[in-house]
Amino acid sequence: MTSVAEPSTPRKRSKWDQERDPELGSPPQPPVKRRQLSIHHADLSPPNASHWKRPAPSVFVPPRTHHPPLTSSRSVYSYEKLNSIEEGSYGVVFRARDKQTGDIVALKKLKLDEEKYGFPITALREINALIVCGHENVVGIREIVVGETLTQVFIVMDFIEHDLKSLLTLMPSPFLQSEIKTLMLQLLSACFPFNLLMNNRGTIKVADFGLARRYGDPIGVGGMTQLVVTLWYRAPEILLGAKTYSTAVDMWSVGCIFAELLLKEPLFQAKTEIELISMIFKLLGPPTNESWPEYSSLPLSKTITPPSPQPHQFRQKFPISAEEALQHPYFSSFPSAAAGERRRKPFNSPTAPARVAGDKLLTDVE
Amino acid sequence: STLSCTPTAQERSLHEEMYDRSRGIEFLFRLGTTIGLHSPGLFTAATWFHRFFMRYSMLDYHRQTIAAACIFLATKTEECGRKLRDVARVCQSKAKGVDVRDIPENGPEIEEVSSQILAAEEVLLEALC
């Protein structure tokens, strides 16, 4: 959890720093009687961990400055909060300015209170995934900063101008075909369609890794979590209670976003899971043995009756993989992703609306 | 060198500290193996254990409590999830030298150990970051 330099906040050690002069004087005497945090006191009656008071770090510990290679996380106060961007179930995101460099960044506060089992594993995974990833289409992580207590941990990320959802609602006309192609190409190569952001140069960044998990990780006792991804983008196998799933669920979400880019609104706007699954089957036709062999083995497949077959779709093995999708003729046919279209000035990638919301958007459309 | 000026070594002696560290690591490995943590996880936990006692004294924090907290944190970071209750139970059985089956699954004893592991985890995280 170590990141960039600067000694930690003075809060904990300061008391000792004042009391002792490092060079002069004899070392302080250690306190004689101390209560120890020990599991052995568990079976003795009265002491209780909640009554146990945390001792300060030992007086013999040299200050951090004596260990230049061992630097602690910076304080959140090295950033100046500008405004809050959005609030979700996962936490709050702020726009902030680095007081030293003046860079504008996004600060994501992890939701850590109400944790029964210590530091939450989802937070550890998210930080880990972001640090390890380093992909062009994944939002860049700068560092981790901490606040006063351990319930305040922030991820500092590059600030990205837009999120796709509000962009879609703001834009007066849908994206052009060529724009959609560039976006889809980027999306497929990242293939983590959770929380999408877009900067002014039309590069998509993936931002939310709260539920990311290294594919191929050993699965614990309980199997994988069944509640992943916003309902609208959830793949049918998750809806039907599959215990394990693969990157195919991400491809499903990519497909939903593809449709959303074309339609300018989400494809399946369902309120409940049942409604969603019936919408899916209505659009794609009921699953057959050829199109989806595993269907009948899914836990919840018995509980629903798919609509009667329609003479279309779901014939191909579905969904295809990200590699296959990138080879699809769609991306090489006219209008190609790079060409741009003629009804506006030749941009290589889509322009995002001006930063001032409500301003004239897409100024050059006829 | 700095390595011989740890908090515990100055309050007691380097010899005693080394002895207690190795006992703590031995406990950590027994606990970790029993709950089925893989080797990289064990080594991670052991490193944290040593790092922690570079900053805090063994008179303040018992080695077994910290070992348990290191193991519990490692199960989380190494994607080898274990329930806190199970870690607490195995930990208690190792500490007392009794069979796991003789430790009740619920009850005040496990509650107490669990909350101590969590308290230790908090200090541990702070010491590490």
Supply the key terms.
heterodimer, A: 366 residues, Phosphorylase Kinase, domain 1, Transferase(Phosphotransferase), domain 1, six-stranded mixed beta sheet, three-stranded antiparallel beta sheet, 22% helix, 13% strand, disordered N terminus, disordered C terminus, B: mainly alpha, 6 helices, 69% helix, Pkinase-domain-containing protein (chain A)
Write the topology of this structure:
The complex is a heterodimer of chains A (366) and B (129).
Chain A: H1 14-19, E1 74-75, E2 79-88, E3 91-98, E4 104-110, H2 121-133, E5 141-146, E6 153-158, E7 162-163, H3 164-170, H4 177-190, E8 196-198, E9 204-206, H5 236-239, H6 248-263, H7 273-284, H8 322-326, H9 329-332
Parallel strand pairs in A: 1-5
Antiparallel strand pairs in A: 2-3, 3-4, 4-6, 5-6, 7-8, 8-9
Helix pairs in contact in A: 4-6
Chain B: H1 7-11, H2 14-34, H3 39-52, H4 63-77, H5 84-96, H6 108-128
Walk me through what this model shows.
The complex is a heterodimer of chains A (366) and B (129). Chain A is of the alpha+beta class. Among the domains of chain A are: 79-158, Phosphorylase Kinase, domain 1, CATH 3.30.200.20; 164-335, Orthogonal Bundle (Transferase(Phosphotransferase), domain 1), CATH 1.10.510. Chain A contains 9 helices and 9 strands. In chain A, the strands form 2 sheets. Chain A has a 6-stranded mixed β-sheet, covered by helices on one side. In chain A, strands 7-8-9 form a 3-stranded antiparallel β-sheet. In chain A, a hairpin with a 5-residue loop joins β3 and β4 (104-110). In chain A, α4 runs antiparallel to α6 (248-263). The longest helix of chain A is centred in the C-terminal third of the chain and has 16 residues, at 248-263. The two termini of chain A are 52 Å apart. Chain B is mostly helical and 129 residues long. Chain B contains 6 helices and no strands. Chain B has helices at residues 7-11, 14-34, 39-52, 63-77, 84-96, 108-128. In chain B, α2 (14-34) packs antiparallel against α3 and α5 crosses α6 (108-128). In chain B, 46% of the residues are buried. Chains A and B meet through α2 of A and α1, α4, α5 and α6 of B. Chain A: This is Pkinase-domain-containing protein.
